[in-house]
Structures are given as C-alpha cells and as structure tokens.
Amino acid sequence: MTDLAELLQAADRIVAFTGAGISTESGIPDFRSPGGVWTRYDPREFTFDRYVESADVRRKSWAMREELFAHRPAPNAAHRALARLEEAGRLSAVVTQNIDGLHQDAGSRTVIEIHGTMREVECIGLRPAYGTPDGCGFRQGTEWVFARLAAGEDDPRCPECGGIIKSATISFGQMMPAQAMDDAVQQAQDADLLLTIGSSLQVYPAADIPLIAKDAGARLAIVNREPTPLDGFADVVVHGSAGEILGAAVVS
Ligand code: APR
C-alpha cells in the first residue's frame, strides 16, 4: 500500500479538497462529529428559504456565527502544510467547503471557496426565491453586521435597498457559486493528486470533486479522523488528526 508521503512526493499538481475537520484543531467545531454544529442546531432550520422567511432564523444564524468565530481562530499545522506545498510549487489550489478563511490566513493563495465565506456579508434582496440571492450588490466585511447587532439591531437590513443581509456563505437549498464550482472542477481535472482532508464527503455536489479528479486520472488520498463513503475509491486512506498527519507528511 503506497503511503501518503510517497504519493505527495510523486505529485506536482496537487489539489487539496478540505472540509470542517481541517479546522477543528483551530477550535472550530465540525458539523457531523459528536458535538458538531448539526448535533446542536437543526440543519433543516438553516436552509436558504427558512433564512429568507424567518427573522428568528436570521437571529439564530448570527448567534451561531458569533459563537463560532468569537475567539478569532488561527490556522493549524494542516493549513500551514498546504500553504508550504503551494509555496514549493507542488499544490495548484485548495478547494474548500469551509467558510472560515483559515487557508488564506495560513498563506494559501489559490483558495476556491465553494460554500462561500463567512468573512463577508451581502444583500440578498427583499424576497429572493429559488435559492438565488437577488441583492443590490451591497457587500461588507462581517464585522459590519456584528457592529449593527451590538448596537441593538437584531435583523440588520441593507442600508442601500432594505434587503435581507446574509453571510456570503452557501446554505442548503441555495444555488452553488457557478464560477467557484467551474474553477474547482477544472482544478480537479488537471490534478495528479487529489488530497481530501477533514471531510465526511457526504454533501453533494461538493463531494463530486474528488471523484472528478479520480475519473480524470489523478491519485486520490483521503485524510480523515473516521471512514468516509469514498474510502473505497482512494489510493491511500489515513485515519487520524489532520494536523499531525499533514504536519508529518509535508516536511518544510
Ligand atoms: N483531523 C481529521 N479529521 C477530522 C478532524 C481532525 N482534527 N476533526 C474532524 N474530522 C473529520 C470528522 O471525522 C468528519 O468525518 O472531519 C469530518 C468533518 O465532516 P463534516 O462535519 O460533515 O464536515 P464537512 O465534510 O466539511 O461538511 C460538508 O456540510 O453542512 C454542510 O456546508 C456544510 O461545508 C459543510 C458541508
């Protein structure tokens, strides 16, 4: 069985595909592990349509965001290992499902955020439908909305058009960002190694990305604390902590 370090050594067009598990060692809970976000909040409450129709869901969403990010999480050894691989010219891109911005903080430059980012908020319009934001273009850093919440507004509205304000993330039932998905698919098709880290690989279309790379001829390595549905397709599967495994496998 080829091991992870050998696969990494032999590749020079690596694409990393990351999930919430790469950030747990930075103190951000993932979604489906014990104690994860979806064990404490009901995901059916956090769809795009529920967000549009319910001020209470919007209030809960802001509270969840503030809880997740209040302690200013920092990148960990796994994020830094990917930035080193890019620096060495061996990693082409990080495709991430994460919204925390920690890859950029670790120094990664080509980061494709297929589920958006919580570091910005945007106007999605007054009555967007069919999972499609219909905003006026207003977009600010997330601290803008936290300041409005701290000043006592519990459902901040767009100052330009009165539309609903939402974090620039992709909720269940929301259209995926077309350009980001196109870029992610292109990267996967060009990769010689697709390295998934810290994802349960249960959410589509995101979890198609590793399979697209494999179908296009790339090797597939999965690093995750527990088994995933794609383990059977992988050339290498390593179960354990992303920080330790990547930190050891990617010598500087
Ligand atoms: N090291 C390695 N793996 C870890 C670690 C760690 N330190 N911590 C957690 N994991 C693993 C868990 O075992 C789990 O299999 O990471 C995986 C995280 O899976 P999820 O919680 O399902 O997160 P993710 O795969 O990113 O979810 C995908 O679902 O709810 C949506 O939009 C949300 O982007 C998210 C998407």
Structural features, described:
- The chain has helices spanning 4-10, 37-40, 48-53, 55-69, 77-87, 102-105, 142-150, 178-190, 208-215, 242-249, and strands at residues 14-18, 91-96, 111-113, 116-123, 139-141, 165-169, 193-197, 219-224, 236-239.
- It is of the alpha/beta class and 252 residues long.
- It folds into two domains: 1-26 and 74-115 and 176-252, 3-Layer(aba) Sandwich (Rossmann fold); 29-70 and 118-169, SIR2/SIRT2 'Small Domain', CATH 3.30.1600.
- It has a six-stranded parallel β-sheet with strand order 3-2-1-7-8-9, with helices on both faces. A three-stranded antiparallel β-sheet has the order 5-4-6.
- Helix 9 links the parallel strand 7 and strand 8 (219-224).
- The protein is elongated, with a radius of gyration of 18 Å.
- It starts with a helix and ends with a helix.
- The mean pLDDT is 95.
- The structure holds adenosine-5-diphosphoribose (APR).
- Adenosine-5-diphosphoribose binds at residues 19-21, 24-25, 30-33, 36, 97, 115, 198-200, 202-203, 224-226, 241-242.
